[in-house]
């Protein structure tokens, strides 16, 4: 089922069009990975779909309605976004950061209700951050800090969770920590997750649906085994690679071995 889609979407930075005539749908209740080379427009697409960027043309539809025709608070109750490398004010505690996720539900006086506190407690529990609630965010490890930000996004209690390269600058253990948390949220909470992923093998391991982007356009989309092919990797990334099956999960794994003919044209 598709409840969020773009229609003929154009997005530009000043006069430069980054995304042109984009038509794609996000499968509800699934994890979708946006993949592509640096500068391909992945993050721009994510920001446009989350209403952080206004399109030059076309629209983003949520439940058949343009997200730009709805109020900011109403959209914030439907989707949450975690940008790349978010930063918190010095000394801000984990519980204070997570409480920011309740902003769309607060009155103009800004006080937390009993329900707000229950949701904050739940977000800390599900992300494993309860023991760190009084600790300043800037004193956490990389993986703990990323989990705190995800908890803040969860506190918004939205159907859609957007993440822009959530494992950037994390070591392998912390990368797995974050990706397994997202997988758990999808399985147990039914959250629709859309993430820009730098590591192609992370995308195949944790996503149900994949969208390969080049120069702001969709080159291939669908199941990971349909997208991760030698031809698509050649066109999108400019590499030659062997595709093998993961012996544990059966999903495709990419083993690059050479630059392809299109490597200099990406």
Automatic annotation (TrEMBL):
It is a peripheral membrane protein. SMART domains: AAA (SM00382). Signal peptide: none annotated. One of its GO terms (cellular component) is plasma membrane. The keyword Phosphoprotein does not apply. Gene3D superfamilies: P-loop containing nucleotide triphosphate hydrolases (3.40.50.300). InterPro entries: AAA+_ATPase, ABC_transporter-like_ATP-bd, ABC_transporter-like_CS, P-loop_NTPase, Siderophore_ABC-ATPase. The keyword Ubl conjugation does not apply. It comes from the Bacteria. PROSITE patterns: ABC_TRANSPORTER_1, ABC_TRANSPORTER_2. One of its GO terms (biological process) is iron ion transport. Keywords: ATP-binding, Cell membrane, Ion transport, Iron, Iron transport, Membrane, Nucleotide-binding, Transport. One of its GO terms (molecular function) is ATP binding. SUPFAM superfamilies: P-loop containing nucleoside triphosphate hydrolases. This is ABC transporter ATP-binding protein. It comes from Paenibacillus xerothermodurans.
